[in-house]
Each structure stands twice: as structure tokens, then as C-alpha cells.
Design goal:
Length: about 375
């Protein structure tokens, strides 16, 4: 029995030993890994800071009435190109009954006063002609008549303004005719015929009849994170992309950086503005969303590689260069500007060197 157990153990040990030898042999028979290589290339590297925002006119003018009333006619629509002084709309005056009554009463009183002064004037003029009174004694009656006439004219003008929004003295000029104050494109007409509008005064902003802007003078208005704002300077170039206009980049020049940040989504952000260089081949609509890449630094025609090719040993950047068939050696390089994907290589390699791509090994 003991002999049988010994034989069994011996056979088991022998089997394990044979399997181990077979496993090691199979492992040695695995095909070698073949690593892919790439080469440095000459390119432009731009270090950017991204700002999100929109494109708006530098100056958008809101045309508002000087009188309250009802829109009688609208003569423009969004998209129209107009000049300063062009007629935009007509407003029909709906007079306030209290103001109308007061104006009419003033006219009636002025007429009564003029009638009375005319009577005194005519009576004393006859006495002057008969040399009963002197010119000096007649002069107060003449002055009173002129003043009464002026008061009647003023009262009638006030009544005309209350009723029609225009005085007799103004001729064709009327507050009921809404004129454009600037040249440009009509962006919006928020009212329609029959709408009530309120005049602009010290107590309210009044109703907007139309908004007008010069669409050749646009700015990018956006916000940048506080971690990036100190890298910006007035005059920097921005590379702007507009969501609605694909495959085209616009440039803009940074003009303004807000001195005060605002909290948005848990972060402090600062507003910036940049003058957009328009392209006649594209029509940029007011309010387009846009992203602007603020160019912090830029180098052109430099040797560059993908940052993923670099490893670091004690802080020193290294790459693996092929020196033979699938034989590589590490080489120290000097790096420069990086855009987060590509990095400038100032020295250490040439454009002809083949660089090992890490983790690219495949079984042959």
C-alpha cells in the first residue's frame, strides 16, 4: 500500500514538472511585440484660453416715441437697411381728457382776453387819432393787445399738441412721426399697428418702436474664468468660431477686460469684449453664440510632437528613438510652447527620427 502511494506521488510530481516545462516553452514561443513609430513635424502651435459668449452690435439704438398714443402705421421691418432721418412709424395721439379740457379752456380764456383788449385798443386808438390822449398814454393798450394775441397763439399751440402731437409753428415736423436717429439695419420691431405706446420721459423709459444697429461694427462679448483672466492683455488677438457658421474662423481684437468678476455656476468669471473683424462673405446675425480662443502665445514653423510621446524621468522630458529594427533608446529633449496636444521641441531630435509610440505594441 505504501509503495502504491509513493508511486502515485512521484507520478503527480512528474506531471507538474512536465506541465511547468511545457508552459515555459509556450511562453517563450509567443511572438514579439512590434511598436509603431511616428516622426516630428513642422507646425504652428497656439496656446489658447477659451471664452464663451455671443456676437452683438457695438451700439444698438432703441427708437422710442416722444408722445403717447396708438401706432397708426409701421413703415419698416426687421432686416431693412435705413438711414438717419428715415420715417419708421406714425403715432396717432389719443389725448388725455383732463389735459384736453384744460387746453380748450385756456384757448377760450385767451379769446375772451383778446376780445377785451381789442375793445380797449380800438377805443383808445380813436382817442389818440383825435389827439385827446398822447402816444405814451396809448402804448399800454397796444402792449396789452399784443400780449393777448401771443397768449391766444400759445394756447392754440398747446391745444394742437394735446390733440395732434404737433404745434402750428412746427409745420411738417411732428412728434407723431417717428424717425430713425441713426443709420443701420433694423434688428427688431417689437410693436405692430394698433399697439399702445408710451412716451419717453423722466418717469419711464417709454415703448420701443424699433432697434437699429450698424452690423459692420460688431463685438464679441464673453466671459473667462478667473484662472485665465490674468493671462489676458488689451490688444490680444482672439480666434472666434460661430456655431451657426461652420468651418470658418473670425478674428477679433481684445478691447475690454472687466475689473470685477461675477459668480456663475460656482466659479468667478470676468467679462471681456473684443472688436470683430467682419468678413464680407458672411453675414453675422446679432446674438449668434460664439467661442473665442484668446491667443496667449504662438510660434510658427517649429518642430513639434504629440505630448503623449513624452515620458519624464526626474522631471526631464524623454522620448524613445528607434536605433535599429525595433530597438529603441531614450533621448532627452528640450520642449517649448504647448497647446495641450502638441508641444514644441527645441532640441534633442530631428524631423527624420522615428519616435516610439507608447502602448502601440502588437503581436506579429
Amino acid at each position: 500500500m505504501k509503495k502504491a502511494i509513493k508511486i502515485t506521488l512521484l507520478i503527480s510530481l512528474l506531471a507538474v514538472f512536465v506541465y511547468t516545462l511545457w508552459f515555459l516553452y509556450q511562453k517563450d514561443q509567443k511572438p514579439p511585440q512590434i511598436f509603431e513609430t511616428t516622426q516630428a513635424e513642422t507646425r504652428e502651435i497656439v496656446k489658447k484660453s477659451v471664452a464663451t459668449g455671443s456676437v452683438i452690435p457695438r451700439n444698438e439704438i432703441y427708437v422710442k416715441p416722444q408722445v403717447s398714443g396708438i401706432i397708426e402705421d409701421i413703415l419698416v421691418q426687421p432686416g431693412d437697411i435705413i438711414k438717419a432721418g428715415d420715417l419708421i412709424a406714425r403715432v396717432k395721439i389719443i389725448p388725455n381728457m383732463v389735459s384736453l379740457n384744460n387746453a380748450e379752456n385756456r384757448v377760450n380764456r385767451a379769446k375772451i382776453s383778446l376780445q377785451n383788449t381789442n375793445t380797449d385798443y380800438d377805443r383808445n386808438r380813436k382817442l389818440l387819432e383825435a389827439q385827446v390822449i398822447s402816444q405814451a398814454e396809448f402804448q399800454p393798450f397796444e402792449l396789452a393787445r399784443k400780449q393777448a394775441m401771443e397768449e391766444l397763439n400759445a394756447a392754440e399751440d398747446a391745444l394742437a399738441i394735446v390733440k395732434d402731437g404737433v404745434s402750428k409753428k412746427s409745420g411738417n415736423t411732428s412728434n407723431t412721426l417717428i424717425m430713425s436717429t441713426v443709420s443701420g439695419m433694423v434688428l427688431d420691431v417689437p410693436v405692430e399697428k394698433g399697439f399702445n405706446v408710451i412716451e419717453t420721459n423722466n418717469f419711464n423709459d417709454g415703448s420701443t418702436i424699433a432697434s437699429i444697429a450698424d452690423m459692420d461694427n460688431l463685438i464679441f462679448q464673453g466671459k473667462v474664468d478667473e484662472s485665465e483672466v490674468e493671462k489676458l492683455d488689451i490688444g490680444m488677438e482672439l480666434i472666434m468660431t460661430i456655431g451657426a457658421i461652420e468651418d470658418h474662423e473670425f478674428t477679433a481684437i481684445l478691447e475690454y477686460i472687466s475689473p470685477k468678476g461675477v459668480q456663475e455656476e460656482g466659479a468667478i468669471k470676468f467679462e471681456i469684449e473684443a472688436a470683430v473683424k467682419t468678413d464680407t462673405n458672411f453675414f453675422i446675425r446679432a446674438g449668434y453664440s460664439a467661442n473665442a480662443n484668446v491667443v496667449l502665445d504662438k510660434v510658427s514653423d517649429v518642430l513639434a510632437i504629440d505630448e503623449r510621446l513624452i515620458s519624464f524621468e526626474e522631471g526631464i522630458p524623454m522620448v524613445e528613438i528607434e536605433v535599429g529594427e525595433q530597438e529603441f533608446e531614450k533621448r532627452q529633449i528640450e520642449t517649448g510652447l504647448s497647446d495641450g496636444i502638441y508641444v514644441e521641441v527645441k532640441s534633442g531630435i530631428t524631423e527624420s527620427d522615428k519616435i516610439k509610440i507608447p502602448n502601440s505594441g502588437q503581436a506579429n
